[in-house]
Write a structure and sequence with these properties.
Helix content: 10-25%
Largest sheet: 4 strands, antiparallel
Radius of gyration: 17 Å
Shape: globular
Number of helices: 4
Structural class: alpha+beta
Number of strands: 12
CATH architecture: Alpha-Beta Complex
Number of domains: 1
CATH topology: paralog of FGE (formylglycine-generating enzyme)
Distance between the termini: 30 Å
Strand content: 15-25%
CATH class: Alpha Beta
Strand order of the largest sheet: 3-6-12-7
CATH superfamily: paralog of FGE (formylglycine-generating enzyme)
Order of helices and strands: EEHEEEEHHEHEEEEE
Length: 267
Protein backbone atom coordinates (compact mmCIF):
# COMPACT_ATOMS: atom_id res chain seq x y z
CA UNK A 1 0.00 0.00 0.00
CA UNK A 2 1.51 3.41 -0.93
CA UNK A 3 2.60 5.65 1.96
CA UNK A 4 1.79 8.98 0.40
CA UNK A 5 -0.17 10.68 -2.40
CA UNK A 6 0.52 10.02 -6.03
CA UNK A 7 3.32 12.10 -7.56
CA UNK A 8 2.24 15.76 -7.89
CA UNK A 9 2.47 16.00 -11.65
CA UNK A 10 -0.38 18.54 -11.78
CA UNK A 11 0.21 22.14 -12.86
CA UNK A 12 0.08 24.99 -10.34
CA UNK A 13 -2.75 27.14 -11.66
CA UNK A 14 -4.24 30.23 -9.98
CA UNK A 15 -7.51 30.01 -8.08
CA UNK A 16 -9.98 32.82 -7.71
CA UNK A 17 -13.05 34.61 -8.92
CA UNK A 18 -16.42 35.53 -7.49
CA UNK A 19 -19.01 32.82 -7.86
CA UNK A 20 -22.33 33.51 -9.62
CA UNK A 21 -24.42 31.99 -6.83
CA UNK A 22 -22.61 32.54 -3.53
CA UNK A 23 -20.67 35.69 -4.42
CA UNK A 24 -17.85 34.35 -2.25
CA UNK A 25 -14.65 32.66 -3.32
CA UNK A 26 -11.06 32.14 -2.26
CA UNK A 27 -8.35 34.72 -2.90
CA UNK A 28 -6.55 34.72 -6.25
CA UNK A 29 -3.56 32.75 -5.04
CA UNK A 30 -1.82 29.77 -6.65
CA UNK A 31 -2.73 26.38 -5.21
CA UNK A 32 -2.00 22.76 -5.97
CA UNK A 33 -4.03 19.75 -4.85
CA UNK A 34 -1.36 19.18 -2.20
CA UNK A 35 -1.34 22.66 -0.62
CA UNK A 36 -3.32 21.25 2.32
CA UNK A 37 -2.60 18.25 4.50
CA UNK A 38 -3.99 15.07 2.99
CA UNK A 39 -6.15 12.67 4.97
CA UNK A 40 -3.52 10.29 6.32
CA UNK A 41 -6.07 7.75 7.60
CA UNK A 42 -6.56 6.69 3.98
CA UNK A 43 -3.21 4.90 3.99
CA UNK A 44 -4.20 2.81 7.01
CA UNK A 45 -7.70 1.99 5.75
CA UNK A 46 -8.66 3.05 2.22
CA UNK A 47 -11.95 1.18 2.56
CA UNK A 48 -13.38 3.23 5.41
CA UNK A 49 -17.11 3.77 5.82
CA UNK A 50 -18.80 6.68 7.59
CA UNK A 51 -22.11 6.18 9.37
CA UNK A 52 -24.71 8.77 8.37
CA UNK A 53 -27.42 9.13 11.01
CA UNK A 54 -31.11 9.04 10.17
CA UNK A 55 -32.81 12.39 9.83
CA UNK A 56 -34.76 14.80 7.69
CA UNK A 57 -32.70 16.39 4.92
CA UNK A 58 -33.30 19.24 2.55
CA UNK A 59 -33.00 17.90 -0.99
CA UNK A 60 -32.65 20.02 -4.12
CA UNK A 61 -32.40 23.79 -4.36
CA UNK A 62 -34.54 26.74 -5.36
CA UNK A 63 -38.08 25.81 -6.35
CA UNK A 64 -37.12 22.12 -6.23
CA UNK A 65 -36.07 22.23 -2.58
CA UNK A 66 -38.01 19.84 -0.33
CA UNK A 67 -37.53 17.76 2.81
CA UNK A 68 -37.06 14.00 2.76
CA UNK A 69 -36.72 11.58 5.66
CA UNK A 70 -33.58 9.46 5.29
CA UNK A 71 -32.78 6.26 7.20
CA UNK A 72 -29.30 5.70 8.64
CA UNK A 73 -26.68 4.12 6.38
CA UNK A 74 -22.91 3.84 5.94
CA UNK A 75 -21.18 5.40 2.95
CA UNK A 76 -17.64 5.05 1.66
CA UNK A 77 -15.42 7.83 2.99
CA UNK A 78 -13.85 7.99 -0.48
CA UNK A 79 -14.93 7.17 -4.03
CA UNK A 80 -13.83 3.75 -5.31
CA UNK A 81 -10.23 4.08 -6.50
CA UNK A 82 -8.39 2.50 -9.40
CA UNK A 83 -6.61 0.28 -6.88
CA UNK A 84 -9.88 -0.86 -5.36
CA UNK A 85 -11.42 -1.46 -8.76
CA UNK A 86 -8.38 -3.47 -9.83
CA UNK A 87 -9.16 -6.05 -7.13
CA UNK A 88 -12.67 -6.39 -8.54
CA UNK A 89 -11.43 -6.80 -12.12
CA UNK A 90 -8.88 -9.43 -11.10
CA UNK A 91 -11.53 -11.55 -9.38
CA UNK A 92 -14.33 -11.25 -11.93
CA UNK A 93 -14.78 -11.25 -15.68
CA UNK A 94 -15.56 -7.53 -15.75
CA UNK A 95 -13.58 -5.54 -18.28
CA UNK A 96 -10.91 -3.00 -17.37
CA UNK A 97 -11.76 0.71 -17.70
CA UNK A 98 -10.72 2.01 -21.11
CA UNK A 99 -8.35 4.65 -19.71
CA UNK A 100 -6.13 1.91 -18.25
CA UNK A 101 -5.18 1.05 -21.83
CA UNK A 102 -4.69 -2.60 -20.94
CA UNK A 103 -2.26 -1.88 -18.10
CA UNK A 104 -2.96 -0.81 -14.53
CA UNK A 105 -2.03 2.89 -14.06
CA UNK A 106 0.22 2.74 -10.97
CA UNK A 107 0.52 6.52 -10.67
CA UNK A 108 -3.27 6.77 -10.49
CA UNK A 109 -3.75 4.06 -7.85
CA UNK A 110 -5.29 6.45 -5.33
CA UNK A 111 -7.37 8.35 -7.88
CA UNK A 112 -11.06 7.54 -8.37
CA UNK A 113 -11.73 4.99 -11.07
CA UNK A 114 -13.41 6.51 -14.16
CA UNK A 115 -14.80 5.20 -17.44
CA UNK A 116 -17.18 2.96 -15.50
CA UNK A 117 -20.87 2.63 -16.29
CA UNK A 118 -23.77 2.48 -13.83
CA UNK A 119 -23.94 -1.26 -14.50
CA UNK A 120 -20.22 -1.59 -13.72
CA UNK A 121 -20.86 0.12 -10.38
CA UNK A 122 -23.69 -2.32 -9.60
CA UNK A 123 -21.47 -5.26 -10.53
CA UNK A 124 -18.75 -3.99 -8.19
CA UNK A 125 -21.28 -3.73 -5.35
CA UNK A 126 -22.55 -7.24 -6.03
CA UNK A 127 -18.97 -8.54 -5.85
CA UNK A 128 -18.36 -6.67 -2.59
CA UNK A 129 -21.57 -8.06 -1.11
CA UNK A 130 -20.58 -11.63 -1.92
CA UNK A 131 -17.00 -11.14 -0.73
CA UNK A 132 -17.95 -9.62 2.63
CA UNK A 133 -21.35 -11.10 3.37
CA UNK A 134 -22.65 -7.55 3.90
CA UNK A 135 -25.00 -5.85 1.44
CA UNK A 136 -23.24 -3.16 -0.61
CA UNK A 137 -24.87 -0.88 -3.17
CA UNK A 138 -24.55 2.57 -4.67
CA UNK A 139 -26.42 5.34 -2.83
CA UNK A 140 -29.80 6.74 -3.69
CA UNK A 141 -29.55 10.39 -4.65
CA UNK A 142 -31.07 11.51 -1.33
CA UNK A 143 -28.55 9.42 0.61
CA UNK A 144 -25.78 10.94 -1.46
CA UNK A 145 -27.03 14.48 -0.87
CA UNK A 146 -27.47 13.95 2.88
CA UNK A 147 -23.90 12.63 3.14
CA UNK A 148 -22.65 15.65 1.16
CA UNK A 149 -24.65 18.46 2.77
CA UNK A 150 -24.74 17.16 6.34
CA UNK A 151 -27.46 17.83 8.89
CA UNK A 152 -27.09 21.58 8.28
CA UNK A 153 -27.90 21.31 4.54
CA UNK A 154 -24.91 23.37 3.40
CA UNK A 155 -24.35 24.44 -0.22
CA UNK A 156 -20.98 22.68 -0.39
CA UNK A 157 -19.83 19.80 1.79
CA UNK A 158 -17.59 22.06 3.91
CA UNK A 159 -20.05 24.97 4.23
CA UNK A 160 -21.95 27.51 2.17
CA UNK A 161 -19.05 29.53 0.74
CA UNK A 162 -17.03 28.32 -2.23
CA UNK A 163 -13.31 27.64 -1.85
CA UNK A 164 -11.72 26.22 -4.98
CA UNK A 165 -8.83 24.67 -3.06
CA UNK A 166 -11.30 22.39 -1.24
CA UNK A 167 -12.12 20.25 -4.29
CA UNK A 168 -10.85 19.30 -7.71
CA UNK A 169 -12.93 21.71 -9.80
CA UNK A 170 -12.30 23.74 -12.94
CA UNK A 171 -11.13 26.76 -10.99
CA UNK A 172 -8.28 24.73 -9.48
CA UNK A 173 -6.97 24.00 -12.96
CA UNK A 174 -5.70 20.45 -12.43
CA UNK A 175 -7.16 19.03 -15.63
CA UNK A 176 -7.55 15.44 -14.46
CA UNK A 177 -8.46 13.38 -11.41
CA UNK A 178 -6.65 13.70 -8.07
CA UNK A 179 -6.07 11.31 -5.15
CA UNK A 180 -9.26 10.78 -3.17
CA UNK A 181 -7.70 11.88 0.12
CA UNK A 182 -5.91 15.11 -0.80
CA UNK A 183 -8.77 17.57 -0.07
CA UNK A 184 -9.13 17.10 3.68
CA UNK A 185 -10.59 20.60 4.10
CA UNK A 186 -13.30 19.67 1.62
CA UNK A 187 -14.73 17.04 3.95
CA UNK A 188 -18.47 17.06 4.52
CA UNK A 189 -19.73 17.80 8.02
CA UNK A 190 -20.21 14.04 8.44
CA UNK A 191 -16.55 13.44 7.53
CA UNK A 192 -16.98 12.14 3.97
CA UNK A 193 -14.30 13.22 1.48
CA UNK A 194 -14.34 14.10 -2.21
CA UNK A 195 -18.11 14.49 -2.39
CA UNK A 196 -17.86 17.28 -4.94
CA UNK A 197 -15.37 17.78 -7.73
CA UNK A 198 -12.95 15.15 -9.02
CA UNK A 199 -15.59 12.81 -10.54
CA UNK A 200 -19.33 12.67 -10.94
CA UNK A 201 -20.72 9.75 -8.92
CA UNK A 202 -23.41 7.31 -9.98
CA UNK A 203 -26.52 7.03 -7.82
CA UNK A 204 -29.09 4.25 -7.94
CA UNK A 205 -31.97 6.62 -8.70
CA UNK A 206 -33.60 7.17 -12.07
CA UNK A 207 -33.56 10.84 -13.08
CA UNK A 208 -37.20 11.61 -12.26
CA UNK A 209 -38.55 15.05 -11.46
CA UNK A 210 -38.77 16.22 -7.87
CA UNK A 211 -40.17 15.79 -5.31
CA UNK A 212 -38.29 12.62 -4.48
CA UNK A 213 -40.53 9.65 -3.69
CA UNK A 214 -38.83 6.36 -2.97
CA UNK A 215 -41.88 4.31 -4.02
CA UNK A 216 -42.58 5.91 -7.41
CA UNK A 217 -40.35 3.53 -9.38
CA UNK A 218 -37.19 5.63 -9.45
CA UNK A 219 -35.31 3.09 -7.30
CA UNK A 220 -36.23 0.05 -9.39
CA UNK A 221 -32.86 -1.18 -10.60
CA UNK A 222 -34.32 -3.17 -13.49
CA UNK A 223 -36.19 -0.18 -14.93
CA UNK A 224 -35.01 1.50 -18.12
CA UNK A 225 -33.92 5.12 -18.10
CA UNK A 226 -31.04 7.43 -17.35
CA UNK A 227 -29.64 7.46 -13.84
CA UNK A 228 -28.68 10.30 -11.52
CA UNK A 229 -25.11 11.54 -11.27
CA UNK A 230 -24.00 13.73 -8.37
CA UNK A 231 -21.07 15.84 -7.23
CA UNK A 232 -19.57 17.52 -10.28
CA UNK A 233 -16.04 16.81 -11.48
CA UNK A 234 -12.66 18.28 -12.33
CA UNK A 235 -14.33 19.69 -15.46
CA UNK A 236 -17.01 21.65 -13.55
CA UNK A 237 -17.02 25.25 -12.34
CA UNK A 238 -18.23 26.48 -8.95
CA UNK A 239 -21.90 26.29 -9.94
CA UNK A 240 -21.41 22.68 -11.04
CA UNK A 241 -19.99 21.39 -7.75
CA UNK A 242 -22.87 22.47 -5.52
CA UNK A 243 -23.95 19.50 -3.43
CA UNK A 244 -27.58 19.80 -4.60
CA UNK A 245 -26.78 19.72 -8.31
CA UNK A 246 -27.95 16.68 -10.22
CA UNK A 247 -27.21 15.37 -13.68
CA UNK A 248 -28.41 12.37 -15.66
CA UNK A 249 -26.31 9.77 -17.42
CA UNK A 250 -26.75 6.81 -19.73
CA UNK A 251 -26.34 3.76 -17.43
CA UNK A 252 -24.75 1.77 -20.25
CA UNK A 253 -21.77 4.07 -20.69
CA UNK A 254 -18.99 5.65 -18.64
CA UNK A 255 -16.85 8.73 -19.16
CA UNK A 256 -13.47 10.15 -18.16
CA UNK A 257 -15.04 12.16 -15.33
CA UNK A 258 -17.53 9.66 -13.90
CA UNK A 259 -16.97 7.23 -11.02
CA UNK A 260 -18.88 6.03 -7.96
CA UNK A 261 -18.79 5.30 -4.25
CA UNK A 262 -20.43 2.57 -2.20
CA UNK A 263 -23.03 2.40 0.54
CA UNK A 264 -23.03 -0.40 3.10
CA UNK A 265 -26.27 -1.51 4.69
CA UNK A 266 -26.61 -1.18 8.47
CA UNK A 267 -28.09 -4.36 9.91
Amino acid sequence: MPQGPSPPFFPNFPVGGSGPLTGVSSASLPHTPFSQESDQSYYQDPGQFIEIPAGVSLIGEGDDSHSVSVKSFEIGKYPVTNLGYQQFVKRTDNSWPSHWNGEFPETLSDHPVVDVSWHDALAYCEWMSKATGIQHRIPTEVEWERAARGAENTVYPWGSSFYAENCNCWELGVGWTTPVNCFSKGSSLFGVLDMVGNVWEWCSSLHFNYPYQIDDGREVLSADGWRVLRGGSWMDHEWGVRAARRLSGNPMTGSHNTGFRVVREIS
